[in-house]
């Protein structure tokens, strides 16, 4: 681990600084609502050039999210963003999916499931501030939050998996359906479609396109106020209830889903296609 | 019970007059469709100043709805509206939720469940004519009907429960999802959001904003014609089938849901928050 | 069976020519994508004057679809369209529903279920090119495909069943919900509503209104390219997973659904209403 960059509240800084790495940075903002002041943790992915979801990044992200979500830190909201220019996250680290064995692949997939679960079930309201490409696994992170803001930039948001022979497994399909409905999910996944921020807004994949000069992270912090001003018990009770089918499915069937994903990914034609796609990328 | 105000068809009047009170008024309109004349019952809530869903109102409403829905009265459609200026219904009577015991709370909640069930499963097409604030429990009444019209006024429609520490339980969440989808349901419930009529139209929470000079109740009566002109057997068969999951859940799990609601509501921090909120309201 | 009209690829022609009839015509187009050339089968219904889904048409359609969907023919996409002016399909052949017995009705319904199942589970991307009225059973065919294009014409799209006393059974309700959500499904079915192409676009019942001078079938063939350019394994895996609940329900409960449909249709009041409706149609 390299030098840890944590800014803001001194007390919080000490409790987190042990756990974050150069790949996942955390800073804190204090936001004034109508009812109170709120502490917001800003988590920034920092894995240049495109914020690939590497094993180390996922592991660090998972620890960070779990820490912030535990209630004893007086954190009221969470922004997930990028510290890399032009990329929120380009998705899975494809190298983790090839020349691997079932055990290693399974561990990697389990990290994704953990991050997703922590975000999707968080008591703390969460927002994704998307200021660059948000593809495949990047979308899985984004849809696990409570609110999605994209800047008005020249980048794409979508799940391209089908184009390179990879699948978005059932649980993530369910999460995407929860956000944009079954028809738009089907179109996006079966065409491997990538949307502009405006198109993504139209289908509900994001909630706002942010156009002003305000920094997207400040803007995202403020977008949490309507959530933070509600009662934490009532809000959390309803959040978990509204998402209960998806959460239960994840908790009961995660091993099974992990196995099915490995079966699909390790089959020779899928491996072949992926290896050849990675070669193409490296030539570019 | 105070003097009963029932207007219209003499025969119908006699059968209902025993059961309605000053809190729930019923009148009848005859509407000309292309195929036939249709009798529409107009049920108006009359509990000033804001049509709180008091125990008495719910009890009277339930009897009224059950009577109208039984087929022997030759009623083809039902409008639910308000007789109180600026308010369709502001929701639950909060006083019923505090300084109470499990038994009383349970009875009160059961009345809400009954009204909702009668409306949601009605063979007769139903429409909500919303001419003023429609909040929390008011929305639960509205989404249990087949069609929602709001006048083009300066009022709000939404479920504010989370703001005051109350929950909209799973069954009502399911009904709202059925109307506006899971994403918009989540946003409304987790932010305690209130929409203008135009905003409510945009997310599908209402079906029409009524702008002309025509009385909203006449307009609502006419909006039932497309439903009333279809075959009652085919229409009812499909209505119950389209809503079967929600109805079955209600019928099988209503006691359990009632218990879970009481558990949540009677917990000390929820009671504390509610008592303090009611005090604030009274000071205003 | 009359003379078979099959055009296009000689090799494909021979394998299909035995199975198609005058009621279901097949021709082939080769389309250039970015990655490859794709062979598209164009299936045209040809049962004037309104493409009623007669027993013979359904039987021929079913064989045709099964043949095309089997992978050994190197077909990459499928267009379903009409060869009859002003009509995609007006729906079920009503005469099959009256003066019948349970056994015959059951066989007829089973043919519909088969066609629907073959289309809905097809590995090959499918599109409906709708160039005229698409009603009731016609909508069931259309929603079973992956993409729906309607020309910008003066015709209607909708499920009118409730108007004539017929039901769209639960499985087809589920398929329609999958496309347009539960609220719009409810409105369409309970009002027996018919939409213009522009209205159908707005609620998502079709995906595009085709306005240019290009032949709608050429246009539909090209609309398959984004699907055909993805990986067949990944795309099919996700398609079947996204639709798994509906497919499983069909496979497990088709007999039961077939029985329930027969029970409803054979009841005396439904038969009476249908006979009288057919008489009205014949007088016109």
UniProtKB/TrEMBL annotation, chains A, B, C:
InterPro entries: ClpP/crotonase-like_dom_sf, Enoyl-CoA_hyd/isom_CS, Enoyl-CoA_hydra/iso. One of its GO terms (molecular function) is catalytic activity. It comes from the Eukaryota. Pfam families: ECH_1. One of its GO terms (cellular component) is mitochondrion. PROSITE patterns: ENOYL_COA_HYDRATASE. One of its GO terms (biological process) is fatty acid beta-oxidation. Belongs to the enoyl-CoA hydratase/isomerase family. This is Enoyl-CoA hydratase. It comes from Amphimedon queenslandica. The lineage of its organism: Eukaryota, Metazoa, Porifera, Demospongiae, Heteroscleromorpha. The gene is 109584588.
